[in-house]
Structures are given as C-alpha cells and as structure tokens.
C-alpha cells in the first residue's frame, strides 16, 4: 500500500525549525456528508465541525530542534489539566525518536492568523492536532537524518532515530544536539514527508505521566496569579447583589481609597459581551494584597440599580420552560416546525406493531456551575497604547479581539499570553476576567493582577442553563419492541456566541441540515445522540430568553449531561416494560460494534447482575461522542447506613461505591491520561446526579462558595473505579475530556433509580430538598475570611448538617 | 502594626503588614510563596492547606498577627526539607500515580494527606478509606480516586 505523503515547510532559522500545512487527510473526505441516517451527530458531529473549521490554517504550527537537542513546540491550545501538552509531546517523541521528557511543549500566545485553530473545546484538541504535529515532527526527523548522513557516512534511508540520536547501521551515532544547527535552513521552503506507520508505534498507546506532574506536586507549577509581573497588584471587584446589576452611585469612595494597602478604587463596566447584549457594572479595588482587596470591596457603600432577572427564581423559570415546550408530535416524517432542528429518522420497518402503549416523562435539570478550582484570573498591563494580558483562555484569539474592542485598540496592540489553567471545563471560553482586568488597568494606568472571588464565580459566573427534557416513547408489547422515541429539550438560552458562533457560521454550508436553526439548535444537533435503535426517533431543542439574559455557557459535555440521563432512565423503563434486562436490552439495540464492545467489557469486568443487597443496585449506559464510545457501569448504595453516615459538615447521601468504565477512542495516545479524563468525568457525573447545583432565588443564586455548591468531594467519590482502555479500533484518536460526563451522570442516575425503586425526575436529586446551608450575604458581596484557622481545622467553617437526598 | 517575624520553610521572615491580613496573602502577595493556592478564602476548599508546627492548617483563615515568632510554617515548597530529601514520599506517590490533572488543588491535597497520615500513625493506626473520606480538600477535575491510591502508597513510605 502506498503511504500517504504530507507537505510541510522547512523554516529559515538558526537551528532546525519546521512548519506544517495539513493536506490530503483522506479521513475527512471519507467522512464527508451525511446520508439520511438517524442522528446528525452520528455522521457529522461537533468533532467534525471543530476539525473542519480548523483545517484551513493548521499549516502554521512549528517545531524547533534546539542546540541542546531538545525539541520545542508551542501549541495553540489551552492546557487546563486535560493533558494536551503531554499528548503533543508523545506524538513528537514517537515520530522523532526522542524521549518524551526532551520535548518541551508551551502554550502559544493569541495568534489571530490561526483563526479557528486556536480554541480548546469540544474535546477536539487531540483530534485536530494529531496529524499536523506528527507531520512537523516527521519533517524535523527527516532533516536531522539528512544532516547526520554526511557526518556518519551512511545513506539516509539506513539511519534510524532513537533516544535523541541518529544511528547508523554500523552502530555509530550522533546526537540531535550536534545536528540542530547543521540541519538548519537558510531559506524557507516546502518539503514532503511520510509518517511513521501505526504498527511501528512504541510510545503512542503506552502510559506517559503528565509533563508538569513534578512541578504540580512541588508547588513550582505557575498559574496566572503566580506569575511575577512587576507592579501588577492584587485587584478584586465589588459586584451587584443581583445578576447583571449596575452601580448607581458609590457613596464612600474617598474613605475606601484610604484603607490600608488600597491604591485605587474605580467603577468599571462589566459587560460580558462587548458591544451588544446586556450591560452591567461594578467597582474594582486594587491593593497590596488580596486580603486588603476583600476588606475594601466589603467596605464599599454602593447604591445598586436593578439586575437583569430580579423577578426570577427556579419556580418562575420552570413555568416558562414548560410554557415554551412544544406539544408532543410523533411519530413524524417531517420536521417539527415549532421547535425546528428536528431530524426525521429512518428505521427498519417493524412489521405488524399491533396496539402500542406509551411512556411519557418530564425531567428537570437545574443550574450548574462549571467553576474550576482556579478562579477567573487575568493580569493586565494597559499603558502607552499597548495592552499585555495573561489569562488561561480557552479561546485567546477571541479574548484578544474583545480586549481590542473594549480598549479602543487594534488587535495588534493587544498581546494575550496563555498560562496553564487550573481547570477550565468550558468556563474559560469566556474572557470575563481578562476584560475586567484590562478595563481596570486602562482606567487607572497601572498593571493589575485581577482575581474573581469564589463568591463572584457562584453568583456572577457562567452557568449551565436550567432546562427540561421531555421524553415520550411508545412500545409494542406484542412485538416486544420500542416503536417510537421522542425527546425534546427546552432550555434557558445558552451563550455560544464567543465560542462556537463564528465557527458554525463559517461551516454553515457543510452542515447537514438546510433549515434555519439557531446557534444552540445547531450545537444540540451536533452533539445529541441516541445510541440505540428505538424505532422512530425524533428529538428537538427549544430555548427561552435572549442569549445573555443569564450568564450561561458551555459546561463540560454541553447538552448530553442532561439529554442522555433523561434518555437512559426512559430506556430502563422501556426495558422493564418489555421484560428485558437493562444490559441485554441495550446490547440488543446498540447500533455499532464499538459501542457493543464497550458494553460487553463493562458487563464482564464490572460483573453485571451480581448479587447485591437490597438498596444497592447497578446501572449501565453506553455513549458515543467525540469519535469515541464509552460504557459506564455504576453501583450505587442507598442503604441507610451508607446514605446517612455522618461526616461533619459533609453532604453524604447515597454513595457510588464502584464504577467500571470501558472506553474506545479509536487510538488512545496516552492511556494513563485518558483514564484520568474518564475518572474526572465520573466525579462530575456524580455531582450532577446528587448535589451539584445552583438555586436561583429572586434574581441571584444562593450558593456562595464550595461549601454551598456541593461538587463531589472525597466522601462522595467511589472507593473503587476501574477504567478499561479498549484495544485500538482505528488509526486516529478521538476526544476524551468530556466523553464520560453525560454517560456517568446517566449511569449513576439509572443505578440510583433501581436501588430505590423509583425513577428520579429532577436533577440534582437534592436540589428540591431544603437548601442545606446558611445563605451567605449578598451585601457586602464577599464572605469575609474567618480568623479561626488555627483551631478550626479540620472543622468546616460554614457547611450545614449532613444532607441526604434519599431521605 | 509592628513587623511580624516567624519561620517559613526553615527560613526566618519579617513582614511589615496590617495585623488582620490573612497569612495566605502574606505568603503569596508579600513573600512570593505561591504553592498555597486560593480557592475560596473561607476555609472550605482547602486549596491553601499548609502546616504550622507540623500540623495542617489553612492560612486563608489565620490573621498574620496570630502567628508567633516561634511558629514554623511549612508550605508545599518546604515539604521535602521536612524529610531531608528532594521529594517527600507523599509527593513521590503522587508522581508515581500521575495524580494531578490541572494540579491547582494538589499542593493542598498533599499537605492534608501528610497531616492525616501522621495523625493516624500517631494514634497507632494505619490509613483507611474512612479516614480518606473525611479529607475536605476539593478537586474540580475529580482526581479523587488517584489521590486515594496515592495516600495509601505514600503512607507506606512515611
């Protein structure tokens, strides 16, 4: 078989430097446009969109071989824990024959010429860099070998590379360090290379530790707030007591300006969407320490104007979601015009269906935060007609262009550096902190180190919008088959304008649906999936409100964290009605071999159907997304001795005690990192099922910190978790960062339902119980730091009593 | 507002700062010791967990005036020195298990784990899942299962 050849550039530089233009990637052509099969996402999904919209400019990434023989690569992606820098280092090391530890991957500044090829979302990073990075590395290796041939007196095709050296057949060798300059190019020119065949991979597919693991565990890993930028003093913001409120007046400005450590107090706009949408404002304080910022923020006497949603609470939103939901209309061969975005589905004829029975259910999903441990942060120095900003942006080009807009500059006057982030989860697709920091710096003419307080994140941050999912399924008892399955999601509007908006517009002609859809409906259709043959399948998506009424955004796994749990709970109901075991029901109806294989893997490894005490049960689901397939088997223990166990200040409740995951991403580059992403996704799914939510009450969220927003903690984490990485099923990697979230949420929900004998229909299950914490004040805006830290540990300072969603 | 003197990571330090400024900000903003992280400022996320005189505490909730001249503060940066090595056994276990994802909470997780193991050992026991369940340190990447394994592994070498 003729191997494919790829084009790249040898770049004029003092040492060897190569750049890559991606060409002739036949995988995409084979994947071209959809036939009328069930779900759009099966043939053209979000991964395709993200890949297609990055292709035109993927030629501009470069690899440099340094004089010491190490290799440098500046990746146009964010690294927020998902491991993409390590993955890139593995790809380069594999292709070049160098140790992974000798590859240094850094994060690129905002590079506007990259257009869409500098965004980190949709679990698409590894999919989109896989070929270009390898091509660049192969070109670099080729040049090193050419240069070595002369020195070693051997033909280039006889040479091989390993351990950062070029070896001849006779056994002599020369290190990359001695070749870096010799292989350099004086002019930039095109070059052609081939890639290492998959069956010769030695590093890809083996476990590689994170490139920053030592730095992370020794405190030497620098996040944005740790950077040494002179004069960039701590800065925080006094925010309004209701969402998107505005400052009417500051009544004690002079007094606060004289507080200890305070250097500046200034009112700023906090418009999140520069130039459009709603407006809001706040007051910023710059001081010697963040502690003095907190004190000064709380000392401000501000008269606030109204917010954007002051009359809204969970109940009023739920009423509006229900009112907006389109009526059931199924089965139907035509689009449901009221909602739009509904794809009619082809299915094999069932034969004589006979009388059918119906199941119908509404599921409610409350607000979720996508907050990371590192708060929203940015350092900004806006002086002398230039802006230099450091922020862990997932989409630095957009950050740069928004900064230019609010600062009245051209993008060329704005430099955006991208430090490694302390988590992202979609939150850093928005540039809020960078805009805040730049506005303050420009106003006062000094550098600032701006950090959101945790309370800001809960109350003024981005949220996964509240939504409802309505499912109606019909089945034929006589035939033993599901006849139709309809699922409609109605949500508070999700703001995709900063992240996916321009990319979808640029690819509109390729998208496999011609009708006019909103951005959110497009994203929905690109992500929503039904992995089973459930007869005639129809789904649709509808929204209430303008895109920015609430500050919403992408949260790890977008729609499927709601869509799939609702669906899988109904699948379990259907299995029960048709008298089938939940595992067998899925295996019998799953539509592709990879999905079947992962299901069988968790069935066998997770011991499906084993004897369990009353109150303990298993749940299983399979999910296809991001070019991958994952099955999750979860065991949930709801027995009183477990659910009601007391840990001071902890929300205990039902415990997920064992989870088995089987994952197939096609080709796993780094199984150790892939497993980590699955494990993390499971923890987020547990939070989604039981306790992790925000309560909207009279125009703001009640939660004010991590004790209130009850993400999974050590006491909720499963003591046993086993991740099986399937053997390669293809020659390309799929995405992993979000793959497990919706599946884990669904599996845990299904297990809980079987354990208690009642299907939960509102998530997280704990949300509609009492609010189990003392609500922190809204004015002043920040909870003051306690003073009892020497005696309080490990006593929690503010958490409420143990709270059991099952009771 | 007299200057405050105490020891951090074996080194005497003197700071001139208002009495009520919490130690976390003295460490980070004044002394430039950035291993302890801010995650909440109210002693619930535990990302800033460090040691004072060998016991875990959270400097976000301690005014600098409460630190005595004889007090020894240890942050993640100083942890290896407490065992006279390049890395503490708990850090080695963390590396071996490739625990961190984003890594932001991990200095606090490690400092809490070391304290917990010391306490359990002082009580004559060995670390159990129930002990680990009580750790309050928050991790939004969800690395809990690897932390659990690493604590057990690190404890064996402490």
Automatic annotation (TrEMBL), chain A:
It holds the Pfam family MoCoBD_1. Residues 784-807 are annotated as: Disordered. InterPro entries: Ald_Oxase/Xan_DH_a/b (IPR000674), AldOxase/xan_DH_MoCoBD1 (IPR008274), AldOxase/xan_DH_MoCoBD2 (IPR046867), AldOxase/xan_DH_Mopterin-bd_sf (IPR037165), N-heterocyclic_Hydroxylase (IPR052516), OxRdtase_Mopterin-bd_su_IorB (IPR012368). Residues 218-314 form the Aldehyde oxidase/xanthine dehydrogenase a/b hammerhead domain. It comes from the Bacteria. This is Molybdopterin cofactor-binding domain-containing protein.
TrEMBL record, chain B:
Pfam families: Fer2 (PF00111), Fer2_2 (PF01799). SUPFAM superfamilies: 2Fe-2S ferredoxin-like (SSF54292), CO dehydrogenase ISP C-domain like (SSF47741). It comes from the Bacteria. Coiled coil: none annotated. Residues 6-54 form the 2Fe-2S ferredoxin-type domain. Residues 75-152 form the [2Fe-2S]-binding domain. Gene3D superfamilies: 3.10.20.30, [2Fe-2S]-binding domain (1.10.150.120). CDD domains: fer2. InterPro entries: 2Fe-2S-bd, 2Fe-2S-bd_dom_sf, 2Fe-2S_ferredoxin-like_sf, 2Fe-2S_ferredoxin-type, Aldehyde_Oxdr_Iron-Sulfur, Beta-grasp_dom_sf. PANTHER family: OXIDOREDUCTASE WITH IRON-SULFUR SUBUNIT, OXIDOREDUCTASE, IRON-SULPHUR BINDING SUBUNIT-RELATED-RELATED. This is (2Fe-2S)-binding protein. It comes from Actinomycetospora chibensis.
